[in-house]
Design goal:
Layout (H helix, E strand, L loop, with lengths): L7 H16 L3 H13 L5 H17 L3 H14 L4 H13 L3 H8 L7 H18 L2 H13 L4 H13 L3 H14 L4 H13 L3 H23 L18 H14 L3 H14 L4 H14 L2 H13 L5 H13 L3 H14 L1 H14 L4 H12 L6 H14 L8 H12 L4 H7 L9 H4 L1
Helix pairs in contact: 1-2, 2-3, 3-4, 4-5, 5-6, 6-7, 7-8, 8-9, 9-10, 10-11, 11-12, 11-13, 12-13, 13-15, 14-15, 15-16, 17-18, 18-19, 18-20, 19-21, 21-22
Length: 436
């Protein structure tokens, strides 16, 4: 009865017998019975295998793994033609955490068909990984990639190759996957990187253009709440953000002299869709990669201007102007903000003065704050003391605090009580300009 030793039925029957004998405290009696049957005269080869397997089963479950493995190994010697015995022992070696012995035995087997060969190589890959046998890992991956496998499996094989620094083999596998059908974005990015590392710049450029196309398709699908197959990552892939992949593509195109044509295409799209923030953000990345700083600034300001109806947007625009050295524009927007939302203005300015302390930007901000017409409204005057308080806390501009105090004291007598209460300990009211 070929196959009886590792048949599910035989194993199930042994498990039932073991439980019944254990429940009556006769576990050793069962093994003794099997051992007597093994030594009996006149048993057939198949019966001998059955008793050997039965004894090994009980030894294994008694945690006597080495004795069980030895019994199974002896069975194989007596029936070398039985592939099921060797396969069973491969599994037991792996369970016993002896992958090297399992792999050695597995490699004595010859597959009968491509599906079985793939199964063998999948097991070999797992065992070789456990033993860190890079040569056998490489062989298994190569054989697996040549078999009937999905694109997702090919990608996982390529990733393993890259981990082992077998980049040429990884490129070959990824190229095969690419030819078979659309690759997800992450493995396509991986292929581009490998092509670059091998100096295949033309191929990398083509891959970069393909990847950018897929990323834009994924963006469009996201807008309407759909899922683009090309945007899906393979399960084993390390996550890379779309922004990171785009920047990598832009660098490849820049080196290939192809980036300008991509920029011109996106600029044309922006003219047709001038309200598209997605296009503006993409163009900012493109012009940054190309080193077109003036256009980057222009596009950045365009984005910020779209949100000036909100206090946060207005403040961010003012700070951007300040960063660019456009003080009049910064002053205009901060003045609008203090009238729009004085409390928000005060909290953000205080935070900026604190965070920028010791840097040139804090001097620039203080200079702009000095130029605000504080007396224009009570709303502005109400937040002025808190501005003076924060300015005097910044070492590099601390002298501007009393200067602004004196100016307010002289220009707005109605605020003097508030100023005295807020800065009583500083005694700025004794300043020469005030006392004189």
């Amino acid at each position: 009865m070929p196959g009886i030793v590792y048949s599910p039925t035989a194993t199930a029957m042994l498990a039932i017998l073991r439980r019944k004998f254990e429940s009556s405290n006769r576990r050793n009696d069962l093994r003794s019975h099997f051992e007597r049957q093994l030594k009996a005269d006149g048993i057939t080869d198949e019966e001998r295998l059955l008793w050997q397997h039965s004894i090994a089963f009980l030894l294994w479950h008694d945690e006597n793994h080495q004795a069980a493995l030895a019994m199974l190994g002896d069975a194989i010697k007596q029936a070398p033609q039985r592939r099921d015995l060797r396969l069973g022992l491969v599994r037991q070696y792996e369970l016993a955490k002896e992958p090297a012995r399992a792999l050695e035995l597995l490699d004595t087997l010859t597959a009968d068909n491509p599906a079985e060969q793939s199964a063998f190589e999948g097991t070999a890959l797992r065992l070789a990984t456990a033993t860190k046998d890079s040569g056998r890992i490489k062989t298994a991956l190569k054989r697996l990639s040549e078999g009937p496998v999905s694109n997702g499996e090919l990608v996982s094989f390529a990733e393993k190759m890259i981990e082992l620094e077998l980049s040429h083999e990884a490129e070959s596998i990824l190229s095969k996957a690419f030819e078979a059908g659309p690759l997800p974005n992450v493995p396509l990015h991986m292929l581009m990187e490998v092509q670059l590392s091998h100096g295949k710049n033309d191929e990398a450029t083509k891959t970069a253009l393909r990847l950018l196309g897929q990323l834009e398709t994924a963006d469009a699908a996201a807008v309407v709440g759909q899922s683009s197959p090309a945007s899906q990552q393979s399960p084993a892939s390390q996550p890379r953000s779309p922004t990171e992949m785009r920047l990598s593509c832009y660098r490849v195109l820049l080196n290939a002299g192809k980036l300008q044509s991509v920029i011109e295409s996106h600029e044309a799209q922006l003219k047709a869709l001038p309200r598209s923030e997605t296009l503006i953000n993409r163009l900012i990345s493109l012009h940054t990669a190309a080193g077109n700083h003036p256009r980057v600034v222009e596009l950045g300001l365009e984005l910020l201007k779209r949100n000036v109806d909100k206090p946060a947007g207005r403040y961010d625009l003012a700070m951007k102007y300040l960063e660019l050295g456009k003080f009049d524009d910064a002053l205009e927007n901060l003045t609008i903000l203090v009238d729009l939302d004085a409390d928000y203005f005060a909290s953000r300015c205080r935070a900026s003065l604190h965070n920028l302390s010791g840097r040139k930007e804090v001097d620039d901000l203080a200079l702009v704050l000095e130029k605000i017409d504080w007396g224009f409204s009570n709303k502005r005057l109400a937040v002025l003391p808190s501005m003076i308080d924060q300015i005097r806390r910044c070492p590099s501009i601390a002298d501007k605090g009393p200067q602004l105090f004196v100016k307010t004291w002289k220009d707005h007598p109605e605020r003097r009580i508030d100023l005295l209460q807020r800065f009583a300990e500083d005694q700025w009211w004794q300043h020469a300009e005030i006392r004189g």
